[in-house]
Specification:
about 110 residues, five-stranded mixed β-sheet
């Protein structure tokens, strides 16, 4: 299933893709800030093998991701890998890389 908009991915596809069995021991709050034509901010909490998505900004996230909405769609639709997005500067990342890798395994991106 390919996302047409960031909101569609975050609110409809991510909850389906999320693999709770791969999220054991993960306790993170991700702040996702998208710029560009489909800009927006969401906080995504993964705790106790559950996913919660809230629109808006949280004050002290565990992970912070900033990228354009176009690059975000390329990332979640598999047109660019998370590693390539990071190393080519398409995504600004703050937090523990190990948390980000565990989220990837749990279906986050």
């Amino acid at each position: 299933m390919e996302a047409q908009t960031p909101r569609e991915f975050i609110e409809k596809i991510l909850p389906i893709k999320f693999k709770p069995e791969k999220a054991s021991g993960i306790d993170v709050v991700v702040q996702l800030d998208l710029s560009g034509p489909e800009s927006g901010s969401w906080s995504i909490t993964v705790k106790n093998q559950k996913l919660q998505v809230t629109e808006g900004v949280v004050p002290s996230p565990s992970l912070s991701l900033k990228l354009s909405s176009i690059d975000f769609l390329d990332l979640v639709n598999g047109k660019i890998s998370a590693e390539k997005a990071f190393f080519t500067g398409k995504v600004q990342f703050k937090g523990k890389i190990t948390d980000a890798l565990r989220l990837r395994d749990a279906g986050f991106f």
